[in-house]
C-alpha cells in the first residue's frame, strides 16, 4: 500500500536537519538543494516542496516542486515547476509515479509546469493526458572545441576501447582551434565580472520586465543546487556536484562608462548557459565579450535561447563557433493552469526561469 508524506518549508528543513533522510536507500533531496528550496523567496510557508511515497513502509519514490508566481493585473498568481520525479526500480509498475504527480497537481490546483524533462518523464506526462505543449523557445547550441573523447563513447558504449584515439584526435583538433582563436583578444571596452548582482546592476535590471529580480537571483547564486566539487553524492540521483560549477555576473559599459548590458552566465564542466540577459543597446559588445570569455575558459559548448543574441552571433564574423545546431525548449503546462490564466497570456521566460538556472 502506498502512503504519501508531504513536506513544506519547515517540514523539509526539519526532515533534512534531523538527518533521518540519510537512512533511506536513496536520497529524496540533497541538503544544499533543500536549503535553496527553503530560501526561495517565492515559496510560501505552507506550499508543498517535496512529496515522499512509501510502499509497505519503505521509501519508494518522490516528486519535488519549485514554487513560482506571476503578477497578473496587480495580483500574484501562484504556480510551481516540477523539478524532480523518481521511483525506485524495486517499486516500478505500482503506479507510484502517477500517484505522486496527482498529489502534486492536487496541492497546486493544477497550476503546474514542466520543462527540461527527460524523454522518460515526457512520455509519462503525455500518458497522463493533463499537459499541453505551449510557448516553445527555439534556440541554438554552439560548439567551440572537439570533445569526441566524451561524446562518442556516451552515444556508442561499444567503442569505448577507442577512447585513446578520440583523445588524440581531440588534442590535435583543439590545437588548431586554439591557433585560430589567437585573434580573439580581451575586449578594449570596460566590463566587469562579479560573483553576484550588485546595486548598480539591480537598479539597471529594474528597467526590464523580468520573472526574477536581483534579490531572487542572488539567493540562488549563494544557494546553488549543484556544488563545485570532485566528490559525488551516489545516493542522490539528480544533479548535486560538478567539477566546475560557477555563476558569473557580467556588466558591459559603453564608451561613456554607462552600464548598458548585464548578464548571468553559468559554466558547468565546460558547458555554458546564459540564464539572464538585460540590454538597452545592441549586443555587439556583449557578443565580443562572450567570444573572449569562451576562449579564455575553454568552453566546449553554449546553449542559448536568447533570440536577439543568437541573431547577433549569426552576424558575427569572429564568434569562435566551429559548429551549431538547432535546439528547442519545450514547456508543458497543466491544462488546469491554462484555464486559470488569461487568454493570450505570455510568460516571456528567459533561459534561466523556473529551475533552469539551477543546473
From TrEMBL:
It comes from the Bacteria. InterPro entries: Acyl_CoA_acyltransferase (IPR016181), GNAT_dom (IPR000182). Gene3D superfamilies: 3.40.630.30. Keywords: Transferase. The keyword Transferase applies. GO terms for molecular function: acyltransferase activity, transferring groups other than amino-acyl groups. Residues 4-158 form the N-acetyltransferase domain. This is N-acetyltransferase. It comes from Chryseobacterium carnipullorum.
Amino acid at each position: 500500500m502506498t502512503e504519501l508524506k508531504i513536506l513544506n518549508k519547515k517540514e523539509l528543513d526539519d526532515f533534512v536537519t534531523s538527518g533521518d533522510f540519510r537512512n533511506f536507500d536513496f536520497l529524496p533531496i540533497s541538503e544544499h538543494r533543500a536549503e535553496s528550496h527553503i530560501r526561495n523567496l517565492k515559496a510560501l510557508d505552507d506550499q508543498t516542496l517535496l512529496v515522499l511515497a512509501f510502499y509497505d513502509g519503505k521509501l519508494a519514490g518522490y516528486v519535488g516542486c519549485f514554487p513560482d508566481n506571476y503578477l497578473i493585473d496587480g495580483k500574484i498568481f501562484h504556480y510551481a515547476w516540477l523539478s524532480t520525479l523518481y521511483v525506485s526500480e524495486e517499486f516500478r509498475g505500482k503506479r507510484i509515479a502517477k500517484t505522486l504527480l496527482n498529489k502534486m497537481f492536487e496541492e497546486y490546483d493544477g497550476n503546474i509546469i514542466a520543462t527540461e524533462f527527460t524523454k522518460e518523464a515526457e512520455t509519462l506526462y503525455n500518458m497522463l493526458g493533463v499537459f499541453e505543449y505551449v510557448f516553445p523557445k527555439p534556440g541554438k547550441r554552439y560548439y567551440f572545441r572537439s570533445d569526441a573523447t566524451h561524446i562518442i563513447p556516451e552515444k556508442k558504449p561499444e567503442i569505448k576501447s577507442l577512447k585513446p584515439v578520440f583523445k588524440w584526435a581531440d588534442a590535435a583538433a583543439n590545437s588548431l582551434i586554439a591557433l585560430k582563436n589567437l585573434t580573439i583578444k580581451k575586449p578594449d571596452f570596460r566590463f566587469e565580472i562579479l560573483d553576484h548582482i550588485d546595486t548598480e546592476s539591480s537598479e539597471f535590471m529594474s528597467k526590464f520586465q523580468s520573472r526574477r529580480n536581483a534579490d531572487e537571483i542572488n539567493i540562488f547564486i549563494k544557494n546553488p543546487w549543484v556544488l563545485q566539487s570532485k566528490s559525488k553524492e551516489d545516493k542522490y540521483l539528480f544533479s548535486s556536484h560538478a567539477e566546475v560549477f560557477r555563476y558569473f555576473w557580467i556588466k558591459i559599459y559603453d564608451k561613456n562608462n554607462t552600464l548598458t548590458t548585464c548578464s548571468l552566465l553559468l559554466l558547468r564542466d565546460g558547458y555554458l548557459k546564459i540564464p539572464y540577459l538585460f540590454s538597452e543597446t545592441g549586443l555587439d559588445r556583449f557578443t565580443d565579450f562572450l567570444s573572449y570569455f569562451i576562449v579564455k575558459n575553454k568552453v566546449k559548448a553554449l546553449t542559448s535561447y536568447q533570440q536577439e543574441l543568437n541573431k547577433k552571433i549569426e552576424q558575427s564574423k569572429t564568434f569562435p563557433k566551429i559548429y551549431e545546431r538547432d535546439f528547442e525548449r519545450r514547456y508543458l503546462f497543466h491544462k488546469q493552469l491554462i484555464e486559470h490564466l488569461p487568454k493570450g497570456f505570455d510568460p516571456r521566460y528567459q533561459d534561466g526561469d523556473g529551475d533552469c538556472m539551477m543546473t
